[in-house]
Write a structure and sequence with these properties.
The complex is a heterodimer of chains A (249) and B (379). Chain A has 249 residues and is α/β, with parallel strands linked by helices. Chain A contains 6 helices and 13 strands. In chain B, a hairpin with a 3-residue loop joins strand 2 and strand 3. The chains are: A alpha/beta (249), B alpha+beta (379).
């Protein structure tokens, strides 16, 4: 069985976001790019499934729609443990465009399970996974918090308000991954970083597809006051700060 | 000339940063205060490949370059220098010498487990009366024909109590002075070896530092590293590389303290504004940033020379001297910027200041580095 994990290339979550071109573009000068945190959890779970010899997953691939600046992010995915990376060489214009490009690739290169993060930490559209299942005419399981294979049966947990839903289903499907699917993303080991040199990173041409939306303007949220953490053993210090700095007591 | 890091070097730096922030930061204050050896953390360091990152892949190492090593050492030292000193000694002082001078059998037996992090190595050079002055060794390894008989005491040995492998330096032919010194690669549990109590140190309290006593210890002939009489050269060459590790550690202590101070200065307000808006504090931070940047260039230059196969002894001594002095200055200023909070353990900077002091002392004091550098000027 083969798993494909969709990877968004997003600015590091500590980036100070600035805009360019009359606030219609993110200014990416000096930005450090990372794997979208939800996609990274999906990738980690996919690798865990492959490493578990009791099931039949034999390949984990990652795919990204993006320009060459995504390559470093894809190589990190390879260093963490993906077997192959595919970059569809186009600016990711909107969710429809991205899902359409990935769907076209999958039609020619089928996978049993396609995973995508429930949201991305940049535009937060939460749309690619759902659109992908529509393009591929297969089920989409959203807010997936557990993915297990038991005797060949695929068991999925979904987070629902106040509880969870347990599903059993057949591949192929699109799993839209929520936090909880695994404990923590993996840190690439030196061996993995070295092996990533030799793994394939395939660049494919996009298909002709138009975006359905375009960005008119970005606006930053209002600045929030900074947060100081005081450990619970230092309650007196907290009271002092509330008196002397915050002046609320 | 190219100041750009490769994609791979950036990935290694980021992996070290993630590891340090996620797995070393929790509990670092408690480990320091109670001098608890970071057993789990060192195990993870091995799993991720940092303990043998400079060792060739054919010997189960990471096969990474020294520039990557500097980047990783800096990130790990920002958070926990007790862990990074274990990494530095294992990589630069023990594994390097075995890879460079060891026989295939020695590499198989000793290097591979250390490169994987299954075993930890310690470097036994310093003595109560011989540190960088290595020719004054009192520990003897008498050639008994089919084995060496070792007697003596080694001091301030990093990982002395936890290491499974010792790289030991001892005199075999005292009359030949430095040509009479040998290096040996041994298991730390040989009969006759005893380990003294844990040194109660000012900083890097979680790394275990001990004296190691040798009382009629029999070392098989095949455990000598390199040729007869090559021990002094092995020790000195190992220290040349070791200095890059300790320089990078000092760099990490400085940049870690600076990052904390920069953050604090933007949050703490006095007289109605953030203290970074007072020139007295802003200029301190500017000076710190400049010196850290210079120290970083020294470290990377020494690493680059080593990677290029060029002589790096002079450059590594300069890097070690400058980075250690910078670490002491910057961490002291970071405490000052933090004011009263800087004197309290939970803000980390007082610990970084205590740790910085050691970088001016071990693997050659700042004064010894000046001897090395000034002799290099005349060479």
């Amino acid at each position: 069985m083969k798993i494909l994990v969709c990877i968004s290339n997003v600015p590091d979550t500590t980036t100070k976001i600035k805009f360019a071109n009359n606030n219609t573009q993110v200014d990416d000068a000096g930005v450090q790019w990372i794997i979208n945190p939800w996609d990274e959890l999906a990738l980690t779970r996919a690798i865990e499934l492959k490493e578990d010899s009791s099931n039949s997953f034999d390949e984990v691939c990652v795919v990204n729609v993006g320009l060459a600046k995504s390559d470093a992010t894809l190589r990190k995915a390879l260093a963490i443990g993906a077997d192959k990376a595919i970059r569809i060489d186009a600016e990711p214009l909107d969710a429809y465009f991205v899902a359409g490009q990935i769907a076209d690739y999958i039609k020619n290169n089928p996978f049993d399970i396609v995973l995508s993060g429930i949201e991305s930490s940049d535009y937060n559209g939460s749309s690619v996974g759902g659109m992908l299942s529509e393009f591929l005419d297969c089920p989409a399981i959203s807010s997936m918090t557990k993915l297990e294979v038991d005797n060949g049966e695929i068991i999925i947990h979904r987070a629902i308000p106040g509880g969870k839903q347990v599903l059993e289903l057949q591949a192929p499907f699109v799993g839209i991954v929520q936090k909880g699917i695994t404990n923590e993303p993996r840190i690439p080991a030196m061996r993995g970083i070295m092996m990533a040199r030799k793994k394939p990173l395939e660049v494919v041409s996009p298909v002709d597809l138009k975006a359905l939306s375009h960005i008119v303007e970005f606006e930053l949220p209002q600045a929030k006051a900074s947060c100081r953490m005081i450990s619970e053993e230092r309650l007196e210090a907290l009271v002092d700060l509330l008196k002397s700095e915050a002046k609320v007591l | 000339m190219n100041f750009e890091l490769t994609e791979e070097q950036e990935m290694i730096r980021d992996a070290a940063r993630d590891f340090a922030q996620r797995e070393l930061l929790p509990g670092v204050i408690e480990r320091d205060e109670n001098a608890i050896y970071p057993k789990e953390q060192v195990k993870r360091l091995g799993e991720l490949g940092f303990l043998g990152m400079l060792v060739g892949t054919e010997y189960d190492g990471g096969g990474m370059d020294t520039v990557s090593y500097v980047l990783a050492m800096e990130e790990i030292s920002k958070v926990d220098a007790s862990v990074s000193v274990i990494m530095s000694v294992n990589n630069s002082l023990v594994c390097w010498g075995v890879q460079k001078y060891g026989s295939e059998a020695q590499k198989e037996e000793f290097l591979k487990p250390m490169a994987r992090g299954d075993k930890i190595g310690a470097f036994l050079l310093s003595e109560p009366e011989a540190g960088s002055d290595a020719t004054s060794q009192r520990t003897t390894a008498v050639d008994m024909g089919d084995h060496y008989l070792v007697n003596g005491i080694k001091n301030w040995i990093t990982s002395g109590g936890t290491a499974s492998t010792y790289l030991l330096i001892a005199h075999t032919h005292p009359e030949k002075k430095h040509h009479g010194i040998n290096a040996f690669l041994i298991d730390s549990n040989l009969e006759g070896i005893s380990v003294g109590p844990h040194e109660n140190k000012m900083g890097m309290r979680a790394s275990d530092t001990h004296s190691v006593m040798f009382n009629n210890v029999k070392i098989p002939k095949e455990n000598r590293l390199g040729e007869d009489g090559q021990g002094f050269k092995i020790a000195m060459k190992s220290l040349e590389g070791g200095r890059i590790g300790i320089a990078s550690q000092a760099l990490g202590l400085a940049s870690g303290a600076y990052e904390l101070a920069l953050q604090y200065a933007q949050e703490r307000k006095t007289f109605g504004k953030e203290i970074i808006k007072h020139q007295a504090i802003a200029f301190k931070l500017a000076d710190m940033a400049v010196e850290i940047e210079a120290a970083r260039y020294f470290c990377l230059k020494a690493a680059w020379l080593k990677d290029q196969g060029k002589p790096y002894g002079q450059a590594s001594a300069m890097a070690k001297l400058y980075a250690a002095e910078t670490a002491m200055k910057v961490t002291t200023e970071a405490v000052q910027i933090h004011g009263g909070n800087g004197y309290v353990k939970e803000y980390h900077v007082e610990r970084l200041m205590r740790e910085a002091k050691l970088t001016q002392i071990y693997e050659g004091t700042s004064e010894i580095q000046k001897i090395v550098i000034s002799r290099g000027l005349l060479a």
